[in-house]
């Protein structure tokens, strides 16, 4: 997606500034101070004005009643923000307040599809560095740098084939054990308009980006349900929320991955009564990986600031180690993208029109 309001560099400051200004730990003490110790606050502001002449006029004209009203409003908004964040985290974790229990990293096994390159490769290496054993499912060989790592095992697997996944899953269970973590990371893309898309590639991209999630979960989830312990991570995309020209196949397959995650989360609670099997969905923006080698320059010329694999793999691993589920949007400044479908139709179309025109510029 091209540079626009959604991708303004200014938005990168948003999450950090929001956490500072919308913290009750900041507005609460300030409100108490101006309410119950106004003389001390005035003296403090006077001292600041002396040391910072540029602020002298602003501070001297500050109305105490206005300051109290402003801080009351900020404290109320901070409380709502904190409550919303807490409810989001609880909702993603079957309404638990605490992290999931029973995890012992040296004894945990993770399966990572597409783990031989890009985001998957870095995720595998980071998990292994934390002591986990990792099974890599891929059609590409492991990089030589990973071949000597005793905590990483490679299994050649075509994730678009249920038979290949079943055979590989059996080998994983025999040779390593039952996995407690599944990361459905494998993904492909090749920009093409709808009318020029071949049936063969359409079936392939949905096979890799969507259907493979069914095949891997069907193999590895039953034991997690039996133990009532596990974590399934779905790598979706910001394209799950916004579909643009030449990317209908990719956006549709990633929207399917998001729907898969949401339904799986609900089934684990209500069909299988396994609330301690966690689910996390990850929505990264464009990432500079071999997957996008043929279009990376075009995207950057259009204004896209590409993420690195490190910027995506690190939050994934951090979320696993937190023993909590979540919806992760990378970068966090793009969180508003998840709300686009709830906006008025005219505004959605304006955004898609603007982004769509820019994305087709050479």
Shape: globular
What's the helical proportion of residues?
40-55%
Distinct helical segment count = 13
Write down how many β-strands occur, each being a DSSP E stretch of 2 or more residues: 7
Q: Which architecture of the largest domain does the CATH hierarchy give at level 2?
A: 3-Layer(aba) Sandwich
Tell me the radius of gyration.
24 Å
Find the structural class using helix and strand composition.
alpha/beta
The main pleated sheet reads as:
7 strands, parallel
Distance between the termini: 13 Å
Residue runs with pLDDT of under 50 for 5 or more positions: 1-8
What fraction of residues sit in β-strands?
Answer: 5-15%
Physical arrangement of strands within the biggest beta sheet = 3-2-1-4-5-6-7
Assign the CATH class of the largest domain: Alpha Beta
The CATH topology of the largest domain comes to Rossmann fold
Mean pLDDT: 86
* CATH superfamily annotation of the largest domain: NAD(P)-binding Rossmann-like Domain
Total domain units: 2
Helix-strand sequence: HHHHHEHEHEHEHEHEHHEH
List keywords for this structure.
seven-stranded parallel β-sheet, single chain, Rossmann fold, disordered N terminus, 7 strands, globular, alpha/beta, about 350 residues, 13 helices, about 50% helix
Write up what this structure looks like:
The protein has 362 residues and is α/β, with parallel strands linked by helices. The protein folds into two domains: 5-92, no CATH class; 105-359, Rossmann fold (3-Layer(aba) Sandwich). Helix content is 51%, strand content 10%. A seven-stranded parallel sheet has the order 3-2-1-4-5-6-7, sandwiched between helices. The protein is globular, with a radius of gyration of 24 Å.
